[in-house]
Design brief:
The chain is of the alpha/beta class. The chain contains nine helices and twelve strands. The strands form three sheets. It has a six-stranded mixed sheet with strand order 6-7-8-3-9-10, sandwiched between helices. The radius of gyration is 19 Å and the shape is globular.
């Protein structure tokens, strides 16, 4: 169980958000929706212990994250940042293998098990063919998949993903969403941010709506994502439509923007 308790977050002399509370259980996927600049990334950095809370607490099974060592946090959390350019010409295989750092001693080298886990994650994300390529020379979407593979190689209990499908083509977006659902079924806790409410309908058990650093709602996507809430978040008119999907075996909800006609 991850619990965010009345959290205030931000930077020195710059508050970003406050009064945010929610819990996420094992096997649950929680989505964060909100416009650019609303505080999602800062909230994630505070949950991960990279920023000290300005108020409130972040707890894992009653233990406070702020009191944990960096290695202990790395064994609990895997993190996929929003974007990562990369400056050093590591092979993609080695970037993924870096996810094993939390499980390897300070002066120890990765063992056969560590390498096997890294290779499995490369294969799981469909990027085994990139293993020997230079990380700085592959596309932004391919780097994003490598970062997800690196986070999974940590074997974390909680996976935090900041816009994990950004820069991915449609096919890879679907593959990542399918992997997120599979991880939840395997018992992993997943927290992700997205700008696409359709993705929240597809893979999230609950969503948190963030606006100007405040939490507007925390509920199943069918309850939280409505034309009124999307207008409040993004300032645009959106229709939420339910369609039949024999392939999914259930009706699906999708969001369709209402484009204004030119004058």
């Amino acid at each position: 169980m991850l619990a965010v308790d009345n959290l205030a977050f931000g930077y020195r002399n710059k508050p970003v958000g406050r009064d945010v509370s929610f819990t996420v259980a094992a096997g649950e996927t929680l989505g964060l929706l909100g416009p650019n600049g609303c505080g999602k990334t800062t909230l994630f950095r505070t949950i991960l212990g990279l920023l000290a809370p300005q108020g409130g607490r972040v707890l894992i099974e009653d233990g406070e994250v702020a009191a944990m060592s960096r290695q202990a946090i790395a064994r609990q959390f895997g993190y996929v940042p929003q974007a990562h350019a990369g400056y050093f010409p590591f092979a993609v295989r080695d970037v993924v293998l870096m996810g094993r750092t939390a499980h390897v001693g300070l002066f120890a080298a990765p063992g056969e098990r560590d390498r096997a886990i890294a290779e499995r994650m490369l294969d799981t994300l469909g990027i085994a063919h990139l293993a020997d390529r230079t990380y700085t020379q592959i596309s932004g979407g391919e780097r994003q998949l490598a970062l997800i593979a690196r986070a999974l190689a940590q074997e974390p209990r909680i996976l935090v993903m900041d816009e994990p499908t950004a820069n991915l083509d449609f096919g890879n977006q679907v593959r990542v969403l399918e992997r997120i659902r599979a991880l939840s079924r395997e018992g992993m806790t997943v927290i992700l941010s997205t700008h696409d409410p359709d993705q929240a309908f597809q893979c999230c058990d609950r969503v948190v709506l963030i606006h100007q650093g405040r939490m507007l709602a925390c509920a199943p996507p069918e309850q939280a994502i409505t034309p009124a809430s999307l207008r409040q978040l993004y300032g645009v008119d959106v229709a939420v439509v339910e369609i039949d999907s024999p392939e999914a075996g259930r009706p699906l909800r999708i969001c369709t923007p209402t484009l204004r006609q030119p004058l």
